[in-house]
Amino acid sequence: MAWFEAHDTMAKHPKTLKLARLLKVDRRYAVGLLHDLFSWGLTAARKDGELTGLEAGDIASALDLPPGKKGEAGVAALVESGYLDVRGNSYYIHDWYDYAGKLMDKRESDRRRKAEIKRKSV
């Protein structure tokens, strides 16, 4: 079972409040959107948080934001509030390694260990 670290301060963190204001939504909706972002990130993001090859519309679609400009505005709000970073042509989940990278390292270690066990049993 996959998990991500969720802090008790996320619901009323200034970044979350800013996100809710920018999106013009209830704070609880913003928290749900962040939950979607972080749980999706466990499979979509690299260990450093990069959402490789994905554009704003792709991210919006994955988060069930409205298509087109409204969805892209939602992604822009995630950037402006500090939950997503933009570096070059890529989007990154902010501080992803600190929160989920360790889990991703463990998954990779487990994969290698299991492959080695399987290789030795053949």
Primary descriptors:
122 residues; mainly alpha; two-stranded antiparallel ribbon; elongated
Gross morphology: elongated
Main sheet specs: 2 strands, antiparallel
Note the beta-strand portion: 5-15%
Helix fraction by DSSP (H/I, runs of at least 4): 55-70%
Mean pLDDT, nearest integer?
90
Biggest sheet: strand arrangement: 1-2
The SSE order reads HHHHEEH
Number of strands: 2
| Total of DSSP H or I helical runs spanning 4+ residues | 5
Which runs of at least 5 residues are low in confidence (pLDDT < 50)? none
**What class, by secondary structure content?**
mainly alpha
Distance between the termini: 28 Å
Q: Over the alpha carbons, how many angstroms does the gyration radius reach? A: 16 Å
Walkthrough of the structure:
- This protein has a two-stranded antiparallel sheet.
- Helices cover 61% and strands 7% of the residues.
- 23% of the residues are buried.
- It is mainly alpha-helical and 122 residues long.
- Helix 3 packs across helix 4.
- The chain has five helices and two strands, in the order ααααββα.
- The chain has helices spanning 14-23, 27-44, 56-62, 69-81, 96-121, and strands at residues 84-87, 90-93.
- The longest helix is centred in the last third of the chain and has 26 residues, at 96-121.
- The model has no long low-confidence stretch (mean pLDDT 90).
